[in-house]
Amino acid sequence: MEKIEIKGLKETIYTDTCKNGLKVYVWVNEKVKSTFMSLSVKFGSINTEFSYNGTDIQVPNGTAHFLEHVKFNEKDGSTAHDYFKKLGSDVNAFTTFEYTSYIVFSMNKIKENLNHLLDFVQTPVFSAKLIQKEKGIIIEEARMGEDDPGNISFFGTLNSLFKNYKYKNLITGTPDEIKNINVSDIENVYDAFYNPKNMFLVVTGNVNPYEIMSWVNENQESKTFEDKEIPLCKKEKEPTKVVEERKVIEANVTTPMTKIAIKIPKKQFNGFSDIEIRVLLNLILSINFGSTSDFNNDLKAEKLLTSLTSSVSFLTDYVVIMINYDSIYPEEVEKRIIHKLNNLEVDEKDFKRKVNANIATLVLGYDDIEAVNYKIQDNIMDYGEVISDMKEFYENLKFERMISIVKLLDTKNMAILTLVPKKKAS
Amino acid sequence: MEYKNFKSDAYNLYIIKTDKFKTVHMEIMFRSTADKSRMPKRTFLSDLLTDTSKKYPNRKDVVIRLEELYKSIFYGTTNKTGNVFNTIFVYDMISPSFINDESYYEDALKFPFEMILNPSVINDEFTIREFNVVKERMKIDIQSLEENPVKMSIHNALLNAAPNTCTSYSILGTLDELEQISPSNLYQEYQNMITNDLCDIFIIGDIDENKTYEIIQKYFSLRTIKNHEVDYYVENELGNGKKSSDNGPFVQTSLEMIYNIVDLSFYEKNIVFHVFNYILGNGGITSKLYKKVREENSLCYGVSSMYLKYDKMLLIQVSLEDENKDKAIKLIKECMTEMIKGKFSDDDLEDAKNNLILSIEMSQDNNISILNNYVFNVFDKLPTYDERKKMFSEVTKEEVMELAKKLKLNSIYYLSGGQNGEN
């Protein structure tokens, strides 16, 4: 096994790769009794068009999430939930834009839990009857999203930003899309993507990494896997310009909820690594719009808004900055935010304090086994590897880099979406 | 883990010393008997006292200081536990063993006490700027109840089930009640809280107990004498199973079924009920409610059965299509009848017991769970971890069936949906 030393934090992540291509990562915490394991597949909601074995395949939106649901069915008519309940473990799963993860939280019988996690995910059990049964459940899940203003706002904004990228589609699919999913769609995506070369396992807790690896190898070598290529997902060409600059939707909100989203081609930040872009943009947003900014405090003192948050996301070739606020004066706040975006300020004292605070929290990042498991998952999906030098990165991060990236930041390509109370559409 | 208590007339300090975690977690609690008129003010206070103080006059100053203290976290919350409301100030800081600075622990630990004991007040009134910021936030929170169908439905269901007791009191209050709060009457409530509420501090982390006590004594100079008790349990009248509803602007219908729980012994309250509830609905997808309502009939994505221990109630909640609500009610009633008749297997019982025992063990890997366990051990004589594990292992099917008979349907409420979804 290879050891990845997390520099400056005295932490180690163990990693190895099975003969069939399954990558394994292990982090040890000897102070706890429990174990958290995740088996992730690099197949998410946006992967609905792909080439595999010389064939172009298209499946309905919502298929990745649907597969996640039906994956829990087992050959004998039971479910994975039934099995893990017997062991006293919690099993669950989630689907994101880019991957699906099956997770088990257990206290004991680590080998049994690990083996069954691998077995139930790697054993296809699909039938038209099981698919039909699950449709009603998933439709209700999708309907929950229709009653959630945050969900409406988020996906509404993505629809305003993207013409071709599939991030704009609901991860669950809409009720009509869910109804159109059939067993051959499920079988096709399972066959294509649930390939050990396209998966990774993360185990965190009070474990022996060498023992874990030997169990995983034993499990994988007892199965036969075809040596298959990983599917080639269609990469949509996405125009730079936003689709709709301004949209208003009536929803169940009592105070208008607004998102200002900026779509920036990643190539605009030429000369900056992905990590630098992410860290520096988050620092800039925190300094200008966060709780330590006069801008944020003044807007609240003037009763123009009660909450103001921001985020940075990487969506294929674009960086998306979102600024979110609730206000009964959305136009006035919008004016001020746009003015601020065009006049971003960076202060070296703020920069140093926030960088030091972030370094301190790196220590806390290696405390909870579930949090560490998700951190490793994020690293693999965002960067293709575990990032071992974040402390060094922060310590070497210069204020001048922040000034440089501010100069590259063009915030004009913007989509604004406001949810208004149902009786008051503009 | 080592437990150490320090008692004084003004407050009690409970320390759990462990090197399991990298964070030191502290909760400073003010407790009082639930009083409808005071609760909105207490919610206001828990927000305001974490936003501003004499030394840190606004939110910006507070957050800057927290960042300087290695990104410590400090917030306040008010909640209701049966007949008691609690205003809790929560503080998380990096363990001093990771910081190479001798003054760090005292500097960090004194911060929440500085905030609580030195509010930003002029002439016995909270300063108006920060007062107004919090007031606006609370106004939005009160209004936003109408945005969440489940919260709104539960709120209305409890109003129907227990109109005359604190079970149905709202922590936030109404917009009218919020308008009645002024900087001066809020300051009076603050003084009432500091002077008269029971005060307890719980802290867990890799810390020196005696040093911790010395620092807290130095900076938390409460001089009041508190020698009263609070009673957590609420006596609610039995309902007659009546159905009521409202129309909501939502896609899904939110259905609540509330049961009164009658005459439970200490053992039933703390042990048997959890086994019962695990089998019924709290045990996830393999539980009875999930199997019947979701898996066999595909009526919903999730169904929950919440044990409101101190209100002596069980609340079952499900979100679903409006046309299926009567079928769901029938299925839920069937589940309850099956529990009385013992229509659950020995395996179901053993799985429930084993899982509950394992959850106790798992909870010992989480600092907040450990602290909460200690809180209820102190306040409500919750048996220790080992005592509970032993008692869970001994629960019998007959005890679960006997307990099931003690649930009486109080009321059914639904907030009807059926609107077209927005997308």
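Chain A has a mean pLDDT of 96.
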